[in-house]
Amino acid sequence: MRAVAGGHPDSVLHLRVSDLKQFTYCPRIIYYSYVLPVERRTSYKMEVGSEQHQGLEELESRRTLKRYGLDAGERTFRVRLDSTRHGLSGVLDLLIKSGRDYYPVEFKDSAGGPALHHRYQLAAYCLLVEETFGAGVRMGFLYVIPQKRIVPVPFTPSLRQRVLALLSAMRGVVATERMPPPTRRRGRCKDCEYRNYCGDWS
Questions:
Q1: Does any domain span residue 1?
Q2: How many CB atoms within 10 Å of residue 122?
Q3: pTM, entire model
Q4: 185-198: per-residue pLDDT in tens?
């Protein structure tokens, strides 16, 4: 039985935070992940990214929090979060607790700076942190690895609603079992791990 959006929590399809990024990048990835599961090849970027994250954790653990605009706080790396309410789970790169406030941080290897799908992924972690710790989240941060730059991302009501709408849209793809159209930015298809399954790729 397919899960449908808006149903009882036990019947809602459980998604990963990374699915939000993938769906925004190209909606077909959700189709290949949940409707027609296929073997996914590990890309070079995925392997390098894992090594970069580990090195960055070691550096971050020794630094102050001034770059985040905070005087003090506690860091926790690789925080596993799960929400029954939102049907969502993921592993957050870094969570900073300063006083009563919580700040999710995601590490991104993006030469051009943070993209919109990075902001959606971070916002999803804001939702998970709120539910897990019972505290409102006002702000998250994207750490852009190539530039060693920290980008604050306010968790606004509009960003919250956009993420919830995307979660509903993803569940709609799975419920209808219809392949979505590909991304309009066809240059993304070149390095996609699913490109061999798209008959209209050229």
A1: no
A2: 28
A3: 0.83
A4: 877 777 777 877 88
Tens digits of per-residue pLDDT, 140-177? 999 999 888 999 999 999 999 999 999 999 999 999 99
- Is 167 a member of any domain? yes
Read off the tokens for 202.
Answer: 């050229």
Q: Which domain holds residue 35?
A: 9-197
Rounded to the nearest 5 degrees, what angle is found at the Cα of 185, between the Cα atoms of 182 and 190?
85
Residue 46 burial (10 A CB sphere; 0-12, 13-18, 19+): exposed
Q: Is residue 3 part of a domain?
A: no
Closest CA to 34 of 53, 18, 13, 55: 13
Rounded Cα gap, residues 109 and 45, in angstroms: 9
Token pair recorded at residue 75: 């860091």
Q: What distance in Å separates the CA atoms of residue 30 and residue 24, rounded to the nearest whole number?
A: 10
* DSSP structure string for 6-66: TS-GGGSPPEEHHHHHHHHH-THHHIIIIIS----PPPHHHHHHHHHHHHHHHHHTTS-SG
Domain count for the chain: 1
Give every CB contact of residue 90 below 8 A, 6+ residues apart in sequence.
Answer: 16, 17, 18, 80, 81, 124, 125, 128
Number of neighbouring beta carbons within 10 Å of residue 187? 7
- CATH of residue 164's domain is 3.90.320
Tokens 């409707």 label which residue?
35
